[in-house]
Amino acid sequence: MKARALAVATVSSLALASCVGPQGRQAENLPPPPVPSQPSNPAAKTAILAGVTRGPTVASLSIDPAKADLVLAAFRSSCAALLKRSDTSGLTTTADWQPACAAASSWPQGQGVNFFQRYFETARIGQGALYATGYYEPQIAGTTTPQLGYDVPIYGPPDDMVSADLGQFAPDLKGRTIRGKVQNGKLVPYPDRSQIQGGAINGHAPVIGYAADKIDFFFLQIQGSGQLRQPNGSVVRIGYAGQNGQPYTGIGKWMLAQGMLQPGQASMQGIVGWLRAHPDQADAVMDQNRSYVFFKYLNTPPLGALGVPVTGRVSVAADPAFTPLGAPVWLAPDRAEAAGLWVAQDTGGAIKGANRFDTFWGAGADAERIAGGMSAHGSAYVLLPAGTLARLGRAGQIPQA
């Protein structure tokens, strides 16, 4: 849903993690927060550099059978893309995944728990300290043609924006991409949110639709894809088609620093309430987030960074430098809703670092409520194909168990 390589952040990362208190109870039978057996490097750029140790056996995890079947289905759908990708985390090779993917193609329904016990082992990345947020698929009032009352343009990708893979210029910058435009023979930053809304890209970007409400559209941009509910009742789905390359800023954190919000108010719902109560200041506040997302029409369900549909309550966004895309993950948070088995099928601009996950909750009011308030801490494990840790140990990349 953060369609393709969605480069925007979750609704919950609008706020400081400490400002949305833990809710629910610790899920039963979850592993305790990990005690690191080797130092982790918080500045590490990959899972291998962060430190990798063996976690508990998959059999010791209290996996819900129904959830296991859903995650297995999502894993199965990811395998074609997973087997073609280069794992930037340094954890796995294509050969590692082949046995599990081959078995998944014909694994019987109702036996998902057995599948994960048979083909996977768990790994702790760094200290295994989890921070999880949430995202969802919003539906807002919009239209694909100009109409009275719909005056917030929804832009497609500009024709003057270029991207540069810095890894082609310096090996230590592998995986980093910048976006900008060419001006007087030099690559310069692309216009930010305020400049775009002021007309800086007029004539360079197609307008593919119009939203009725600028605040609703702002939050749809944060999600990266969503639905336009047209005046005639029909629904058009739009998804991520690019981003201006400017940094993402969570406005909740900024609003807290300015005293606009008090601790505990920086959920999505709290931020929206403040913006609507202060319409004369809303634009200036939203412009603190210089990132701007461009869209395209979607004819499919929401797609993640692997190019396959993401599933509510099953898919998470992760940082591929620390979690192989397509890998199952086990979350043991202080929010019971987010506990259990998930599969990494997406990415996000604010989803950076080890054990940082963004849980996808689907569409609808319940999904919006949960995602908007999700801020969970605890422990996390990545599920790797059985034998991966032994191979890494033999290669000297991690301590041998």
UniProtKB/TrEMBL annotation:
GO cellular component term, pick one: outer membrane
Enzymatic class: lyase
GO terms, molecular function: hydrolase activity, hydrolyzing O-glycosyl compounds; peptidoglycan lytic transglycosylase activity
Catalysed reactions listed for this entry: Exolytic cleavage of the (1->4)-beta-glycosidic linkage between N-acetylmuramic acid (MurNAc) and N-acetylglucosamine (GlcNAc) residues in peptidoglycan, from either the reducing or the non-reducing ends of the peptidoglycan chains, with concomitant formation of a 1,6-anhydrobond in the MurNAc residue
Pfam families, per the entry: 3D, MltA
Disordered: region residues: 23-43
The entry's keywords: Cell wall biogenesis/degradation, Lyase, Signal
Biological process annotations from GO: cell wall organization; peptidoglycan catabolic process; peptidoglycan turnover
EC number(s) given by UniProt: 4.2.2.n1
Protein name (database record): peptidoglycan lytic exotransglycosylase
Species per Swiss-Prot/TrEMBL record: Sphingomonas chungangi
